[in-house]
Inverse folding.
């Protein structure tokens, strides 16, 4: 069976790209069709892949920022020709589900309907000038119309969580099957031991709410290690006291070592699924997470970690105190069992079944 893969843009390595990498492992001869690629940022995982960027590649190399190409993306994603394939699997959090495949079967793996068009319209444009806000509102209206129509093109839609499944039903009026993203559980060594530090592994952007953790750990003085990089790094470093360390971006091998040796993982932002908490549980480590989104499907309060209910420093501190008080009750072997439900072998089996069904 000849299968192609489609993904919005290969400009960074994150959770969505982990899914694409696993799909490529499953179907190693499959080319990847994408709007554009930043080779330097993504070659670590996709150096050997056959990448087919759209005509937007030449624009991206000039402007460097995807946001300036937003008006052109719907048309560009529709230009790919898949007639020589038996099926296409799209990995979509914005536009990839809108590919046109005609009679070729299309399985769309949805990380989320595009948030800036549906959920965060006001957040997306709040710092713009009045004329720019007006223009952006008009553009996003057109994109929402396109997005709703494009959602009907896939033969089957898969949601990465129940949280996303509800949003697909709300905005696209379509049914979907839940297949959680793949986690390489076997790569993590299970251990009850730890070094006395808490850990964050995240992009350092406002949406991830790392500032909440920095303020909270400034107050309690516990050691916090932060792995990751992003636009907020300098600001967060300026806020942090000496008990908080910023290590920047690290290799997967080093990230695994830090996860395996941490006391607990802190996950302060809202995510549609959240692979890192499951990776921590694969090592038998508890998780402190903001209690919304996909973590409600993976973390079990009182058994594999704790939730905090509001995106505030006080709420996070309350959750941290509960986690430290309950540590002796967590069974690291049971925590690992929870993680095994999301192992990449489960993902592979369900994706292959979904492909057969269409």
């Amino acid at each position: 069976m000849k299968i192609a893969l489609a993904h919005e843009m290969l400009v960074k390595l994150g959770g969505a790209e982990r899914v694409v990498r696993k799909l490529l492992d499953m179907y190693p001869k499959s080319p990847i069709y994408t709007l554009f690629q930043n080779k330097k940022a993504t070659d670590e995982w996709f150096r050997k892949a056959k990448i087919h960027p759209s005509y937007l590649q030449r624009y991206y190399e000039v402007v460097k920022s995807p946001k300036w190409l937003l008006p052109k993306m719907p048309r560009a994603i529709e230009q790919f020709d898949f007639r020589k394939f038996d099926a296409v699997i799209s990995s979509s959090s914005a536009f990839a589900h809108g590919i046109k495949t005609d009679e070729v079967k299309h399985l769309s793996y949805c990380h989320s309907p595009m948030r800036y068009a549906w959920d965060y319209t006001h957040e997306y444009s709040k710092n713009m000038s009045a004329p720019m806000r007006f223009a952006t509102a008009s553009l996003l209206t057109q994109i929402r119309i396109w997005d709703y129509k494009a959602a009907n093109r896939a033969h089957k839609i898969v949601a990465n969580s129940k949280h996303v499944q509800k949003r697909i039903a709300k905005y696209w009026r379509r049914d979907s099957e839940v297949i959680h993203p793949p986690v390489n559980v076997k790569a993590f060594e299970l251990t009850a031991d730890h070094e006395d530090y808490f850990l964050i592994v995240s992009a350092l952007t406002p949406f991830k709410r790392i500032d909440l953790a920095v303020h909270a750990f400034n107050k309690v003085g516990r050691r916090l290690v932060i792995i990751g990089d992003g636009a907020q790094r300098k600001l967060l470093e300026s806020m942090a006291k000496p008990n908080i360390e910023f290590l920047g971006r690290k290799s997967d091998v080093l990230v695994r070592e830090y996860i395996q040796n941490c006391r607990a993982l802190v996950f302060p932002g809202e995510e549609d699924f959240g692979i890192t908490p499951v990776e921590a549980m694969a090592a038998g480590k508890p998780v402190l997470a903001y209690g919304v989104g996909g973590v409600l499907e993976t973390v079990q309060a009182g058994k594999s970690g704790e939730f905090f209910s509001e995106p505030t420093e006080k709420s996070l501190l309350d959750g941290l105190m509960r986690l430290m008080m309950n540590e002796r009750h967590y069974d690291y072997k049971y925590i690992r069992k929870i993680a095994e439900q999301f192992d990449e072998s489960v993902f592979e089996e369900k994706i292959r079944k979904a492909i057969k069904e269409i």
